[in-house]
Each structure stands twice: as structure tokens, then as C-alpha cells.
Design goal:
Elements (H helix, E strand, L loop, with lengths): L14 E4 L2 E4 L3 H5 L46 E5 L2 E2 L5 E4 L5 E5 L6 E9 L3 E8 L6
Parallel strand pairs: 6-8
Antiparallel strand pairs: 1-2, 3-7, 4-5, 5-6, 7-8
């Protein structure tokens, strides 16, 4: 199954009924990391759950993942050159890499192109430090 590169987030959720409508709850972390914004409209795709249909474990939340490769597309210690897209709520730079996976970069500003080293990886977000600013190293 082909997953588009502009995918904002991918997570598992149950469909509940509430006051005559069916509801899919969005995990708070998807808003916290900036994958989606409150009061915005998004298209939603419903896909069959992979694996056991008996399972009710929701630990398989994989923001920015794909069904064929659900793990994060970065590893600790990896270095990449990225462009910072915007600032997060805590003042850190935010960029996206493959499949829309979010990387939070300390001490970086929007529009800045920096080389970062990934310091910590979680299923839905990674954290990185700036190791070089190519524009300033000349």
C-alpha cells in the first residue's frame, strides 16, 4: 500500500459512538508535536489494523510512519542537514524528514539550514542538537 509523503500523522485508534456520531480520538501528542493543529480541517483515511484483531493495545502509535516501515526514519547518532520549518511552543526549531516525521532541534530558527545530530528517538518524534551551521562556517 502506497502512503503519500505528505502524510501528517499515522496512529491507531478505535471508533467510538457518541451522541449519534462516530468519533475517532486524536492522541494529544499529535497536537503537542505539531503534526496537526486545532481548528484545522484534515482528510482522514481509515485503514484496516495490521496484525491481531483481538489486540486492544494502542502502543503502536507511529506518527509519520508507514504500514510497511512503521519505525522512525532516523537513528540516534545520525547526522543530517535539514531546514528548520518553524518554532515549537518551547522555542525549539521543528523540521520534518521522511514521511513527515518530526525532529525537534534545540537552538535553531525557522528558515535556517543546519546540520544536526539526532540525540534521542521516540516512536513519534526525535530530538537533535545543531552540530554545524553551513551558512556560517564559510
Amino acid at each position: 500500500m502506497e502512503i503519500p509523503t505528505e502524510l501528517r500523522t499515522l496512529f491507531s485508534a478505535e471508533i467510538d459512538q457518541h451522541e449519534g456520531s462516530f468519533v475517532i480520538e486524536i492522541p494529544q501528542q499529535e497536537v503537542d508535536i505539531g503534526a496537526i493543529q486545532r481548528n484545522e480541517t484534515y482528510r482522514v483515511a481509515i485503514l484496516p489494523r495490521m496484525g491481531s484483531e483481538e489486540s486492544t493495545d494502542h502502543s503502536d502509535v507511529v506518527s509519520g510512519g508507514s504500514l510497511d516501515n512503521p519505525g522512525p526514519p532516523v537513528e540516534e547518532g545520525e547526522r543530517r542537514t535539514v531546514e528548520i520549518e518553524h518554532l515549537g511552543d518551547q522555542g525549539d526549531g521543528i523540521t520534518r524528514v521522511e514521511r513527515g516525521f518530526v525532529v525537534i532541534v534545540s537552538a535553531a530558527s525557522p528558515g535556517e539550514e543546519v546540520t544536526v545530530e539526532i540525540t534521542h528517538v521516540q516512536e513519534n518524534v526525535a530530538f537533535a542538537d545543531v552540530v554545524d551551521r553551513p551558512d556560517q562556517s564559510e
